[in-house]
Amino acid sequence: MKPQAGHNNIDYRHVDTITVHNHPSYVPRNQVRTTANAQWVLTDLVDPKLIVDSFGMPTHKLLDPVLPSGTAGNVIANRLSENPKNQVLVLEAGGSNADVLDIIVPLFCTRATPNTPQDWNYTTTPQTAFNGRSVPYPRGFVLGGTSSVNYMVYTRGSKEDFDRFANVTGDDGWSWDSLIPYMRKNEHFSLQTSDHHNITGQFNPAVHGFDGINTVSLAGFPSPVDNRIIETTTESTEFPFNLDMNSGYQLGIGWGQATIKNGSRSSSATSYLAPQFISRPNLHVLLNARVTRVIQTTAGAFRTVEFLQDLNGKPFTLTATNEVVLSAGSIGTPSILLHSGIGDSATLTSLGIKPLHNLPSVGQNLTDHTLLSVAFLVNSNNTYETAERNATLAAQELAQWNTTRTGPYVDNPVSHLGWLRVLNTSIFDQFPDPAAGPNTSHYELFISNGLLGPAPPTGNFMAVSAAVVSPAARGSVTLSSNDPLAAPLIT
Ligand SMILES: Cc1cc2nc3c(=O)[nH]c(=O)nc-3n(C[C@H](O)[C@H](O)[C@H](O)COP(=O)(O)OP(=O)(O)OC[C@H]3O[C@@H](n4cnc5c(N)ncnc54)[C@H](O)[C@@H]3O)c2cc1C
User: Fold this and answer.
1) In the CATH scheme, what architecture does the domain 12-97+270-366 have?
2) Which of 146, 161, 373 to mutate to test the pocket of ligand 1 (most atoms within 8 A of CB)?
3) Kindly report the CA angle at 136 between 325 and 268, in degrees rounded to 5?
4) Whole-model pTM?
5) DSSP 261-285
6) pLDDT (mean) for 300-315
């Protein structure tokens, strides 16, 4: 399936150091710079140490990387623009996140994807393990990227996960101890929930940050399954209670934490590009700008970005005087690199793309946590399905959310989480344990008082969704052609 074309409304906010020629809808705000080749000019971007790609790993040094605006991209844009000397431009292929109810109301997160205007609407190639089916592979196509469409569950990796990054990279900067200050710096843990309930015993304050930009909160509306889940943890050794699964030790069952602020989604667009930040004169955002390539400016340096605003129109280019940060996510980043001639040279040549840098690992080792939602029929009518089938009740609950930010719509559907390991470990006599260590889970459970998705005509449900969080399988992102608008092959 092809990615969606998006809208062609252009949102130029405070673009004051950039010149655009031949673009009828652009009216520069104040300072205009004219360049001989009619390109856009930016100044002073980026501390390379801050650059991360979609896996949270450093981007390839070749690209000291203008910013696609995803979850990571907006964080970097915010941090860089703290320095008034840096002029930062964020380019986003999708549209604005503002006023899109399905990506604001937490309970509506299951409607945000797949097959919506805010989704790239990718599908995988036919998967042998799925009996030849191809499945949706959602990615946010909107300001804030996937943080604008995800389920908002706030989870850090385990200490062992981060320490493994440090070992693999040989860079202690990726260890848990090195990164925890940054996790705190990101986080504004809210001590107040929408229903003002007592949150003592539902999290561990010692492991959180309270002064950051991205709000994290506990549920603000009680779920009918709350007590039963907590009772299970006292009755079963298989499912022990964990006060805070974000402490570095993740095993057990505990209360869900979510990137929700006052009953609304906190994405990297609403937090890191909030009004107090987007009003900075040196932070600029351009929507509906589809990057097609980065272009080599001098040997080994790619400082020019090519992008389209009209998918059938002529491309624009802009050149950063310092560097370009490529943060287009786990699918977008390798796609752009490959179309730019950075990848396996032989494969690129066979597609008619001129190879510029032989880097066979680009697009390889795609790792993801496959999730399957398991539904249980329940004999209660107090589940999400009831309101979904009753338009009057749904309208009342939405009105309650709208006026008071209370009621069931303030939360995502995941009340509790479990991080667990397979019980029968004899399989690891034959295969290496893919988890980072003995205190790191193999699978994650998301517990919800209803289905994660549209309600069928009858029945009430409880869902326990399972995600494989230490997968052994690896996939890839490759190109089907040299057309940068063609969807990549996700295998
Ligand atoms: C349905 C779903 C639910 C999820 N739920 C959770 C959850 O509850 N908790 C959790 O921790 N994680 C969750 N995730 C995963 C998490 O949201 C992502 O891993 C994370 O947001 C990725 O961030 P990123 O910065 O790497 O990429 P993204 O946030 O995807 O950012 C990439 C950005 O680049 C833009 N872009 C891409 N290509 C181009 C181009 N050519 N030109 C211009 N712009 C481009 C995209 O439009 C996007 O804005 C979920 C993911 C999905 C799909």
Assistant:
1) 3-Layer(bba) Sandwich (3.50)
2) 146
3) 35
4) 0.88
5) ETTEE--TTTTTTSHHHHTSTTEEE
6) 90
> Which residue minimizes the CA distance to atom 10 of ligand 1?
153
pLDDT tens for 406-428 read 999 999 999 999 999 999 889 99
Q: What is the ipTM of this complex?
A: 1.00
CATH fold, domain 153-265+368-473, is Glucose Oxidase; domain 3 (3.30.560)
Distance CA 459, CA 453 (A): 14
Percent of the chain beyond pLDDT 70? 86
Q: Which helix (H) or strand (E) holds 346?
A: helix 345-350
Nearest CA to ligand 1 atom 1: 150
Q: What residues have CB less than 8 Å from 378, skipping those under 6 apart? A: 460, 461, 462
Q: Which of 78, 51, 32 is nearest to 279 (CA)?
A: 78
Ligand 1 centroid, distance to 111 Cα (angstroms): 16
Name every residue whose Cβ is closer than 8 Å to that of residue 450 and which is 6 or more positions away in sequence: 383, 384, 385, 413, 460, 461, 462, 463
Q: Which ligand 1 atom is at minimum distance from the Cα of 94?
A: 47
- Indicate the domain borders of the chain: 12-97+270-366, 153-265+368-473
Task: Calculate mean pLDDT across residues 179-201.
Answer: 97
**Res 68: pLDDT:** 59
Between 188 and 453, where is the model more confident? 188
Distance CA(308)–CA(241), nearest Å, equals: 51
Calpha distance 15→115 (Å, rounded): 32
Residue 446 half-sphere exposure toward CB, CA atoms < 13 A: 25
Integer distance in angstroms from the first to the last C-alpha of the chain? Answer: 14
Q: How confident is the model at residue 148 (pLDDT cuts 50, 70, 90)?
A: very high
**pLDDT tens, 157-185?**
999 999 999 999 999 999 999 999 999 99
Could you tell me if 359 and 313 are in contact, meaning their C-beta atoms sit under 8 angstroms apart? no
Pocket (CB within 6 angstroms of ligand 1):
54, 68-73, 91-94, 113, 138-141, 145-147, 150-153, 155, 289-291, 327-330, 332, 336
Which pLDDT tens digit goes with each residue over 331-375? 999 999 999 999 999 999 999 999 999 999 999 999 999 898 999
Taking the C-alpha atoms of residue 284 and residue 271, their distance in angstroms, rounded to an integer, is: 15
Closest by CA to 71, choosing from 241, 268, 224, is 268
